[in-house]
């Protein structure tokens, strides 16, 4: 199909990756009148269930990739760990790739990403490349302990990383990662984990959803609240860091900048995600334009939509662990009529697997958080004292943080 700077419905958006991010993008884009084709190795995938066409083939099958892109008007990604050659094939076929292949190339490999950020003068955690045992020893001398050793490629939700508390643990940590090319990062004593989900249009327009505050458990995002409890000066700084990233990378589309606020009051960029992000799921209900509609607008060349936050919001992930006593009690969670349920169509619930999420809006972020955690704790079909204890502890931790961090406000 012939490329055009602006693509109007019913143009076809081709999505590489077929998980929940693609599913929610497809739902938003189809509401606008666009058609969605998805490509991944999986059949009956979360995206494929709602797409107009699902193509199942390996990402490195470049003939299948070529046939796929010939049937779409623009290519985008919901999953960055695809073969970089995918973007090259699309470009060869004259199909626009948004965000561009250079964005995918940079962000799908941790070392390249950190080097890009440092080269752009943006604040990052201390890091060093590890390719040999000599590199590892030198990196430990440079970074010190504690530190985190991560594979340079193909890692998310805590996969592909090991914490090192003493130098003598370094070699065993690298062996556990298969002696792959890696990056050693200094351990950050952080006060809060934050993200800025933002978008950039073809005309360079920039839009954002403010700063979102995140809580991780076992390296997986557990809960997000917006707006973050952050003093205005730091919120503005975080947004400007996100703007700098999108402009330096020449992004067209949605990108998330994950950050730490350390205990010295400094913002440090941790990771980039060149797509809609888990922490931005709450924008579906909480904002005039969701991150998924914005992705469709941006990659099709339309003006970006307004991102005003309608009310404070909280989002809680639903992991496969919730199915340990059988099907969760959805009616109990939805007894609070303000709770919104999103399930991703995944057939097999596994421990740590993201199966869906809940969102709550309220007059304050404290109330939104309490409501969404209460709804999630109600999902256990049988009384689960461990889950109840976790949710009670989460609320207690939040209350303590509010009291201790009063200068950050809400």
Topology diagram in text:
Elements: E1 12-16, H1 20-31, E2 35-40, E3 53-56, H2 62-69, E4 74-77, H3 85-92, H4 101-107, H5 110-119, E5 127-130, H6 133-143, E6 147-151, E7 161-164, H7 170-176, E8 182-186, E9 190-200, E10 206-208, E11 212-217, E12 220-226, H8 232-249, E13 253-262, E14 267-273, H9 283-286, H10 291-299, E15 313-319, H11 330-333, E16 339-343, E17 354-361, H12 365-377, H13 385-404
Parallel strand pairs: 1-2, 1-4, 2-3
Antiparallel strand pairs: 5-8, 6-7, 6-8, 9-10, 9-11, 9-13, 11-12, 12-15, 13-14, 15-17, 16-17
Helix pairs in contact: 1-10, 2-3, 12-13
**CATH homologous superfamily caption of the largest domain:** ATP-grasp fold, B domain
Outline type: globular
Find the structural class using helix and strand composition. Answer: alpha+beta
Number of strands: 17
Low-confidence stretches: 402-410
């Amino acid at each position: 199909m012939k490329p055009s700077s602006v693509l109007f419905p019913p143009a076809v958006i081709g999505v590489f990756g077929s998980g929940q991010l693609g599913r929610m993008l497809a739902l938003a884009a189809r509401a606008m009148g666009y058609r969605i084709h998805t490509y991944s190795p999986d059949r009956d995938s979360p995206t494929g269930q709602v797409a107009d066409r699902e193509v199942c083939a390996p990402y490195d099958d470049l003939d299948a990739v070529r046939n796929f892109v010939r049937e779409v008007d623009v290519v985008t990604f919901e999953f960055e760990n695809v073969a970089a050659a995918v973007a090259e094939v699309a470009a060869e076929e004259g199909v626009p790739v948004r965000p561009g292949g250079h964005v995918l190339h940079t962000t799908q490999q941790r070392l390249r990403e950190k080097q890009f950020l440092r080269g752009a003068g943006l604040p990052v955690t201390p890091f060093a490349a590890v390719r040999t045992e000599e590199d590892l020893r030198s990196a430990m001398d440079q970074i010190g302990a504690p530190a985190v050793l991560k594979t340079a490629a193909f890692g998310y939700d805590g996969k592909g990383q090991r914490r090192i508390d003493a130098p003598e643990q370094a070699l065993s940590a690298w062996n556990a990662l298969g002696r792959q090319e890696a990056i050693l990062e200094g351990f950050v004593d952080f006060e809060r984990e934050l993200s800025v989900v933002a978008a950039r249009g073809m005309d360079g327009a920039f839009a954002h959803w403010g700063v979102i505050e995140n809580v991780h458990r076992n390296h997986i995002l557990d809960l997000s609240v917006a707006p973050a409890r952050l003093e205005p000066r730091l919120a503005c700084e975080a947004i400007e860091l996100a703007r700098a990233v999108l402009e330096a990378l020449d992004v067209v589309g949605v990108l998330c900048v994950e950050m730490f606020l350390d205990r010295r009051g400094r913002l440090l960029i941790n990771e980039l995600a060149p797509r809609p992000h888990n922490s931005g799921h709450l924008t579906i209900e909480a904002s005039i334009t969701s991150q998924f509609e914005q992705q469709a607008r941006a990659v099709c060349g339309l003006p970006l939509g307004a991102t005003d936050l309608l009310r404070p919001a909280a989002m809680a992930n639903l992991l496969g662990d919730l199915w340990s006593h059988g099907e969760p009690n959805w009616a109990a969670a939805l007894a609070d009529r303000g709770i919104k349920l999103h399930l991703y169509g995944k057939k097999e619930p596994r421990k740590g697997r993201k199966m869906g999420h809940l969102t709550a809006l309220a007059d304050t972020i404290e109330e939104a958080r309490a409501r969404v955690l209460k709804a999630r704790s109600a999902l256990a079909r049988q009384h689960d004292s461990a889950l109840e204890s976790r949710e009670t502890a989460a609320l207690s931790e939040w209350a303590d943080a509010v009291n201790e961090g009063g200068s950050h406000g809400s």
